[in-house]
Amino acid sequence: MIKAQRGTKDIFGDEIATWHWIFENAKNIFQNAGFNEIKTPIFEATELFNRGVGDSTDIVNKEMYTFSVGGVEKKETSITLRPENTAGVVRSFIEHNLNRQSPPQKFWYFGPMFRYERPQAGRQRQFHQVGIELFGIKEPTADVEVIMLATDFLNSIGLNNLTVELNTLGCSKCKDGYRKSIKNILAPYLNELCNDCKIRYEKNPLRILDCKNENCQKILEKDEIKEIILKDYICDECKEHFSELKNYLDELNIRYSVNKMLVRGLDYYNRTVFEIKSEALGSQSAVCGGGRYDGLVEMLGGTSTPAIGFAMGVERLYNLVNKITPQKTDFFVVSNNTKEAIKLSQKLRQNNKSVEFDLQKRKFTKQLEKAAKTAKYAIILGDDEIKQNFYSLKNLASGEQTTIKNFEELINYYAK
Ligand code: ATP
Ligand code: MG
Which are the contacts of 188, defined by CB distance < 8 A and separation ≥ 6? Predict the structure, then answer.
């Protein structure tokens, strides 16, 4: 038997109602804030992620689904299944000259992402992200807008006990000084760092703070190193930006804690970075990761445009929310006259009611049993009903039966 690939999952049955509900809440919250949905392709040129996610990241180094496609002409192109969606949205933003519209330009998305990682609870190879990207605003108003929408969306799906962790990485100026200090203080330990961190040391030393390796963690815990990490290296301008953001968050009663170790996985972040976590999720505790990426648009060939966004793991949200009970259909048409049952079903559906009828010409009692399981009402179309042109309507919860004169009355009765 052929089975689903490791790290992938079929989503069906009772789960679907909750998935739709999560999607609808995202749509409401983000559209109410003037964000437009964007659907970018599932695959992109590999180079987009190499540059746009960054070649010191785990994503690019270990987790990408990359393959070559040739076609008849055998002109090989390397493509990659998107591991995240910021790079794709930025590519689209540049390609369609969306910077010509007046800022801010605001987008939200919902869709599958692909990362080749070790599957475990809350970690899959195909998973879904919902997220937003906001372009064109360098002021902290954009930062608060994005964090506020993240928490509003989480609240809308009943998640209000989550912690927002916040940090500022500074701008390219202050980041450079920090990078140098981190490199200096870690230089004596270079041989003890894991192989990944040896590479990070050269390419993006800040990412070492994010390393999950136990030995690297131990080194980072050393007093003289901690001191450097926690030292205030942020320039005045970045400090002002960060403190304005914090003031707005205080004003909105959004609880947060500043975590100076928070650097986040992607290479392109600057200034504000944040993560939202739930203790209830165990070791895969992050439901949301976001940050500012003022340099990315230009780096990918567009005109310099500040930007900020976040992405949330939908499977992790799914695990946290109270599940939605799937709705029963409005009606089940119970009849031995299949032709009449079909005609009535179509008419009801055209009036925006959910209806099923018996496709197997089963006995009346069997049809009623099925109806009781799946529908709110049975419409009984027996010989008398058809001959004399009326409906018998049975409330399947109470068992109560009513005679309904015509189609219009049926619709009105149901509406009540
Ligand atoms: P983690 O540290 O858990 O690997 P990350 O930093 O790689 O997270 P991001 O790239 O910031 O994650 O993605 C944002 C969110 O997407 C995460 O907070 C998480 O909820 C979700 N996510 C990331 N990778 C996976 C995965 N493999 N399976 C399920 N959800 C994921
Ligand atoms: Mg990861």
Answer: none
